[in-house]
Amino acid sequence: MLKNVLALDDSEEEVGAGETATVLASPAETAADWRARAEIYRLLSGVFVEEPGREFVTALRSPEALAQLAEAGLRFDADFLDAPQDALLEALAIEYTTQFASSGGFPPVESVRLTGRYKQQPNFDAMQTYKRLGFVLQPGRFEVFADQLGIELMFVAELLERGATALEQGDAVTHRRLEKEIKRFWSQHLGRWVRGYSRLIERTAEHSFYREMARFLGGFAAEEIEAMSLRIEDADQARLEVPKDDIRVEFNPNEPVCNGCMTDALSTTLSAPDNVRRLEEMRSLGDLR
C-alpha cells in the first residue's frame, strides 16, 4: 500500500518515536529533513486509513524496519512479530473493523471525535483546505471523509513534499507559505484531536500493532506541535464517549411553511373530492399503525 515507507537514507539522522529532526541550516539538508518527516506521516497514514495490506505489513516486519521501529521506541508483542502472515493480516483486519469501523468503536475521524457525528464542520473545513491547495480526494473501497486521520496525515505529508521540492528549486517564498499552511492545518485540525485520540487507542487496542502505532502517533504529534511552536488545546481528551452536538438548521421566518408552500394548482388538486377521500383513508391507516 505504501511503497518504500521506511526507505530513508542511512546517512540521515534517525527519527525516533515522537521526535522531529532539528531544522538544518542549508536548503538541501532542510529539504531532506522535510522528506524524512513526510515519510513518517505516510507511515502513520497507512496505519489508520484502512486495514493494513500484505505489502505494508511485509515491509514493517522486515528486519531493517523492525530495527528502526525498535530504535524509535516501539515494542511489538509476539502477536505482530511471530504470527504467520495470513493469520496476522486477518487479525489486523478484525482489529481495524472492531476498533475503527464498527458500532461501539472509535472511528479515526475528526468530526466524530469532536462533535459525535460524521460530516460536521471539521470535515467541510478540511475539504475546503484541500480544494484551495489543489488536492482532490479519490474514492476508495469505503466512503472517504476529508477529516479521516489517514487523509489528514497524508495531506501534511504532501505539503512537506511540496515544501522540500520548493527548497530544492530555490523557491524560499513557496517553502515559507507551505510551512504556514502546515502550521495552520495542525492548529485547526490535527492538533485539536490527535493527541487525545492516540491515548485512547493506545489504551483500548487489543493488538500490539495498533497499541504501539497509537503511542508512536501521540509522541510524534506532541513533538511536531512543540517544534512548530504551536499552542493548541487537546479537545479530544481521549474520551470513551463523545456527546453528540446539536444539529444546527438555519430557519428563515419569512419562508412559507405547510400550506403556504403549496401552489394554487397543487391546493386545488388535493381539494378534489376523490383525493380528499384518499387522504382521509391514509390518515386512518396511519392511526392504525
From TrEMBL:
The keyword Chaperone applies. It holds the Pfam family Nitrate_red_del. It comes from Sulfuritalea hydrogenivorans sk43H. Keywords: Chaperone. This is Uncharacterized protein. It comes from the Bacteria.
